[in-house]
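Running this now, will post back.
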Amino acid sequence: MVQVMPPPEFRQLNHEAADYNRVYSYCFNPDRAAEDDNGRRNFVPLADNATPPTEYDDGFAECGPGEYISFKLRNVRSARSNPEQWDDPTRRVFIYYADSTINPDTGVLEHDFSGYQLRNGWRYDEMDLVQRNLETVVCPTLELCVREDEGGILPNYDTHRQPEIADVPCEPGMFMYYAWEDRSQGYGWTDYDYNDIRLVIGCPTFEEAGGGLIRVVR
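Update: finished.
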């Protein structure tokens, strides 16, 4: 089976950051995690926090059997207002991966999170993350995918808190909320309010590699 993310259900929420942040989708295969590419391939830019946001036309990464659509955050320090610095390898650049899999027992979409400081455009120095930089919430409907103070179920903008982590299945017709804290403690000032870049994405469906829709039930 192939995991498919439905691009029409993607939308970006308001965000807050002085850094430049760009989110990519990519394909992760846990059976290839020990290979040179760490099981990650086909990186496709999805959204950023430019003003106005950059229009990316390629949609989500197209993944094959055994692969899961995952998300990468590229953070460039204090560069949001300076487009010439967004892809400059000499800037302070930090990379966060959220390798995604689905728990076979619970059906929950899980994310193995890791962070790296990128040096000279090629050297990845793994970061000692004090806490996870990604927050996830499953929304039964799109209308509920707003903050609690707006009548929804998403966390309010409280600072210095632990992120929520979705623990229920992300089923077709539902939505997954992704919110990143773009800095980690020990690597610059951070407030851990998880609103530096925020996305709402339709939950994936599964299709046979040869065609046809499959609904996985428990």
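The radius of gyration is 17 Å. More later if anyone needs it.
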